Each structure stands twice: as C-alpha cells, then as structure tokens.
C-alpha cells in the first residue's frame, strides 16, 4: 500500500474507557470509531484485535497524557505501557502524540453540537481519539 494512503488508528487511553479513531494519510481525514471498556486501564484485547483486523491500520497512534507544562502526568507511564503492549501484540509501529486537553476539546465540540449531558452515558473517548489522530495527521513529525 502507498505510504500516503495508509490507514492509521488512534487510541485515547484511559482507566475506564479507551477511545478509538481511524483515518487515512492520503486524505488527512479521520473519524471516531469505537469506545472500548477498560478495567484499570487494561482493555479487552480481543476487542482491540477485532478493530485492528477490521480496519487493517499500518500505524497506531496513542495519546501521550502530559501535564499542561509538558511534564509527565501521573498516568503517563501507564499510557506508554499500553502503547508498548499494542506494538508487542500486533507488531505495528506505535507513535505517541501529545494529547493535552484532547478530552476537554472533545467535550467542547460535543457541547457545540448540542450534545450536552452525562458523559458516562455518551462517552467522548472516541471523539478524543479522533482529535489525537487529527493532531498527528496535521502535525509536522518525521513519522507522518
């Protein structure tokens, strides 16, 4: 497959939910895909495998939860561990992307669309993953 046409999958890792989004390099577009339930940050790996088999991404992107000042947050090591697990289990390259304020931005976008309310009933994790993927797709990194 042409490198520019490759499909990319992004994850917004969390303790209770992991948001997933997919996109392509060629078009620079992405869309929210799924929310996977997690137990203390550990997903149902069979669900992750099904998504990867379905979408066949060439690259995975994981949000790197940093503090506003750019330092590691308390959960940063756990998100990075999740990224290493993805790489080890599926043999795909995984890129970490700064995700500062992605969940806040996703909530703001949903509110602007009139989706105010209880985020436990309507998780924004897939939208946050989509924002992380958009950051990567539009970013100036040497993995793009």
Characterization of the model:
- There is one protein chain.
- This protein is of the alpha/beta class and 144 residues long.
- It has a single domain (3-138), classed as Nucleotidyltransferase, domain 5 (2-Layer Sandwich).
- Helix content is 35%, strand content 27%.
- The protein contains four helices and six strands, in the order ββββαβαβαα.
- The protein has helices at 45-55, 76-90, 102-112, 125-138; strands spanning 7-12, 17-24, 29-39, 42-43, 59-64, 93-98.
- A six-stranded mixed β-sheet has the order 4-3-2-1-5-6, sandwiched between helices.
- A hairpin with a 2-residue loop joins strand 3 (29-39) and strand 4 (42-43).
- Helix 3 (102-112) packs across helix 4.
- The longest helix is centred in the middle third of the chain and has 15 residues, at 76-90.
- The chain is globular and about 35 Å long.
- 33% of the residues are buried.
- Mean pLDDT is 83; it is low at 118-122 and 140-144.
Give the C-alpha Rg. 14 Å
CATH homology superfamily name: YqgF/RNase H-like domain
Output mean pLDDT. 83
Strand pairing plus helix content: what structural class?
alpha/beta
The shape, in one word, is globular
